Amino acid sequence: MSKQDTHFFNVFSLVIGLLVAVAVGLFALARIVASRTQDLQVLTEADYSRNVDARIHPLAREAIAGRDNSALAIQTAQGAAAGTAVAAAMPKNGTELFEQTCSACHGPGIAGAPRAGDKGAWAARIAEGKPMLYEHALKGYQGKAGVMPPKGGRMDAPDELVKQAVDHLVQMAQ
Ligand code: HEC
Predict the structure, then answer these.
(1) How much of the chain exceeds pLDDT 90, in percent?
(2) For the purposes of burial, counting CB atoms within 10 Å of the CB of 99, is it exposed (0-12), middle (13-18) or buried (19 or more)?
(3) Is the CB of 161 under 6 A from ligand 1?
(4) Which of 150, 151, 142, 153 is nearest to 112 (CA)?
(5) Residues 154, 166: contact at Cβ < 8 Å?
(6) Is the distance from the beta carbon of residue 131 to the nearest atom of ligand 1 less than 6 Å?
(7) What count of other Cβ atoms lies within 10 Å of the Cβ of residue 41?
(8) What global pTM score does this model have?
(9) 127 pLDDT exceeds 50?
């Protein structure tokens, strides 16, 4: 071998050696990082499918009058268990329902909703009579001012409770 060849061979070996060392170093680094992060995120199959279910399930479920809606309660309970779609606790009376749900619109009077306690805004409505107000609150309606959603969107509330909330609204405007 000429001197030049020897020199080349030495430099070449050195470079290859360095590259191998870098590769081994990267491999070791990757293992260390992985051991800190990867195992922690491994979920059991059941957890995994529950999470997927929670992410893709519909935002809202509606009870349908005259049908068996018991599955709804179970699903809601499951949702709550999975930490998602936690249904607010059922209010105990009309006043609570008003505070939880109706006041979102009727409190500040947004989207055309007549403001709670605003006598002027309610007088003509109260004059329609309670049965009409109940009907509109339960089934929802589109008036000149805006859209009143059925039960204010709280579809799982029993009719009786919604009527009590209407009574509460009427009382506040008298
Ligand atoms: C998303 C907003 C919104 C929520 C929540 C809401 N309302 Fe309304 N409500 C409206 C709007 C808007 C109107 C007025 C519609 C119109 O007359 O054009 C209205 C009107 C009404 C009326 C008058 C009906 C009539 O015949 O004039 C009653 C009673 C009523 N709401 C009760 C309730 C009750 C009870 C709740 C809670 C369970 C509730 N609302 C929750 C928006 C809402």
Answers:
(1) 43
(2) middle
(3) no
(4) 142
(5) no
(6) no
(7) 6
(8) 0.60
(9) yes
